[in-house]
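re: ur question from earlier - yeah i can do the single chain one, its not a big deal. heres the input i used so u can compare w yours
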Amino acid sequence: MIAELHCHTHYSKGSKIKTEGLNSPKEIVEYADKIGLDAIAITDHDQFKGAIEAELAARNLDITVIKGEEISTKQGHLIALGLSEIVPPGMDVNLAIDSVKSQGGITIAPHPFDLNNKGIKENAEKCDAVEVFNAINLDRLSNFKAMRFAKKKNKPMVAGSDAHWNLMIGHGITRIKTDSTDEEGIIKAIKKGKVEAGGKYIPVPLIQTWSLLRIKNSYQYLQQYIAENYSLPKRALSKRLLYLTKRSPGKIDYFFKGIAYFGLATAMVYSAAKHSRNII
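and the output i got, formated as tokens:
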């Protein structure tokens, strides 16, 4: 069984750029079914509506929906799978894990050592599995560190695309060794470690296009945020850069492409400096 265990719908929202997920739950499951996935977990940020809607949308499709959530705990992000109701954000990670267990679900530590410090780091040992390959991680060493950590702690290792757009789905996949096709059976197999992580990184041009679509969909909010929170000259520069997104698609995309690859290079250099002592 091939599964996507980390995916977001339009119910996932950001703090500065409001739009994160671009697709509806129905669009997500239909695309996942189209590319041949056997199961997909809907893990919206601190939301459960998308998981419920996705399960309903998949009734006439040949794919299993795993109802989940990416919970914002005090220590960082925590993926919960096999939920029956939402787990509130802002909890201590230990209480969040207990809440998931009380529902019969399991927990996964997504991107535990990412550069944005949104992972739960060493608290990943408390989870049922560790995400050792996150397909959208710009710095490759964070994934390598997660894999070494999982092996050292003898934790089941899974992958996820961290998809916020249907075209990102299926880049980070987990092969699950089970004959069961229902949510409960899949959850049990993951917990028992009958998994194998794999996949490929999401191409930079795809991330670039997603980023531009996010900005365009959040344009009015970003204008207001810049006006209220930035002072000169940062305010003027930010407004100018924001306006340039209106010229995309077009020749301006070469400029955005340069920014995207510069960001990738910067992330990799910073990651090497940050993680070098811990991965040698």
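Residues 205-279 form one domain. not sure if urs matches, ping me
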